[in-house]
Amino acid sequence: MKKYIILLALALLTAVGMNADTYNYLNFVTAGGQITQFGTTGLRMTFNGGKASVTAGGQTQTVNLSQMAYMEFSNTQTSGSSYATGDVNGDGSVDVLDINILINIMLGKDDGTSYNGRQYVLGGTSVDVADINAIVNIMLGKS
């Protein structure tokens, strides 16, 4: 299912004229915040069996799509981890502020687009009470 969502997202990016040439990196981000980053020069992707084979800079790497939370283009080079699970606002801590953001998203007061997928604490495609429970468990040291 995630494979089809990702393929649909790629098709939509193409349809709205998104151009990877204006970005330096393509990031695949897991629900846990781990980033696999590729340069966009000569970038080539193929999809097969729930995996993406990405070739960039003469190197090919395989990414398991079932472990991916989201994909984004960026101009910033990363060290490999973007945030701790549950750190929705990216301030370096998992706390009540992150829960407040999720509540605002659920109530429609925040569209969530500025959190780059961090709002999907459990790696889904929507925010719900389970994401809030996950943050509470992280805060209590149960996760």
What can you tell me about this protein's structure?
With 143 residues, this protein is an alpha+beta fold. It folds into 2 domains: 2-74, SH3 type barrels; 96-139, no CATH class. 25% of the residues lie in helices and 24% in strands. It is built from 3 helices and 6 strands; from the N terminus they run αββββββαα. The strands form 2 sheets. The chain has a 3-stranded antiparallel beta sheet, with no helix packed on it. A 3-stranded antiparallel beta sheet has the order 3-4-5, with no helix packed on it. The longest helix has 14 residues, at 2-15. It starts with a helix and ends with a helix. The model has no long low-confidence stretch (mean pLDDT 78).
Low-confidence stretches: none
Strand content: 15-25%
Distance between the termini: 26 Å
Structural class: alpha+beta
The H-and-E topology, N to C, reads as HEEEEEEHH
Beta strands, count: 6
CATH level-3 fold name of the largest domain: SH3 type barrels
Total count of domains: 2
Kindly provide the radius of gyration, computed on alpha-carbon positions and rounded to a whole number of angstroms: 16 Å
Shape: elongated
Widest sheet, order of strands: 2-1-6
Q: Which percent bin holds the helix content?
A: 25-40%
Give the biggest beta sheet: 3 strands, antiparallel
> Under the CATH scheme, which class of the largest domain?
Mainly Beta
The number of distinct helices, counting runs of at least 4 residues, comes to 3
Global mean pLDDT? 78
Q: Architecture of the largest domain, according to CATH?
A: Roll
